[in-house]
Specification:
About 45% of the residues are buried. It is built from eleven helices and no strands.
């Protein structure tokens, strides 16, 4: 793996981390397309550069993370289900799921169809973003349920953002509220995932590997800053249906590439 690979994957991660299209799935498919073998370092790289994208949320939402105690308590409650399931399933995720292109393609397609059907069925009481819901008005039960939905995203291709956003809409939150909550919930989730992986794997990295990792980290951070701002503008007047169709078409395109 070289610096160009790190640059490409950093861009892919930054663009996809907060969109409901699965950053992990895109990283696995992009790595496959680039011809990168599924080494232990590549798996760790794909996890760690997500932390670069998450840092963009810390920069943009530092007040909610460091000052607004009521918001932080709700993030902590939502994080518990994901932490428990992720810790228990870590060996399976690392050894099997992160190597399976078939799992990613299937999850992208099924998730895309689910988003399309959900948007056809789900009706909000007013406009896409209006309403009284705010981050510190989310109930603890709603936060816990969102955490359960996020736990489903341990399967590559499901998309942490898609799972939390759909879960939040199902429990009655407005789009802007759940999108921002999804941003914030990503911080402890990816911090924990990266810390656990580096703790178990960093000893096997070569010195050159850290330079490649830094490039991917920085690029994903910069690109994610732009992606977050774009998504907040997008949801002002759009549903997530387009992302659903994108997922289905991407899965179909990858199947065709594998066949031909």
């Amino acid at each position: 793996m070289n610096f160009l690979h790190a640059l490409v994957l950093g861009v892919v991660e930054g663009v996809t981390e907060f969109l409901p299209i699965s950053s992990t799935g895109h990283l696995i498919l992009a790595s496959n397309f680039l011809g990168l073998p599924p080494t232990e370092f590549l798996k760790s790289f794909e996890i760690a550069i997500q932390l670069g994208a998450i840092l963009s949320v810390v920069v943009l939402y530092w007040r909610e993370l460091l000052v607004r105690w009521e918001v932080m308590k709700r993030i902590a409650v939502a994080f518990i289900p994901t932490a428990a399931i992720g810790f228990l399933l870590y060996p399976i995720i690392k050894a099997f799921l992160l190597e399976s292109t078939g799992v990613v393609v299937g999850a992208l397609a099924v998730g895309g169809i689910a988003i399309i059907l959900f948007e056809r069925w789900h009706k909000e009481s007013s406009s896409l973003v209006s309403g009284h819901s705010s981050l510190d008005e989310i109930s603890y039960l709603q936060a816990a349920l969102i955490g359960v939905f996020q736990a489903v995203a341990v399967v590559p291709g499901v998309s942490r953002a898609a799972a939390t956003i759909v879960g939040g809409l199902l429990v009655g939150l407005k789009r802007k509220t759940i999108v921002e909550f999804s941003f914030l919930l990503a911080v402890p989730t990816m911090l924990a995932a990266t810390a656990l992986d580096l703790y178990k794997s960093a000893g096997s990295f070569a010195s050159a590997d850290f330079g490649v990792l830094i490039v991917g980290f920085v690029v994903s951070f910069i690109v994610a800053l732009l992606a977050v701002k774009w998504l907040l503008r997008f949801i002002q007047s759009h549903t997530f249906t387009a992302f659903g169709w994108y997922r289905v078409l991407l899965a179909a395109a990858f199947v065709l590439l594998m066949l031909f």
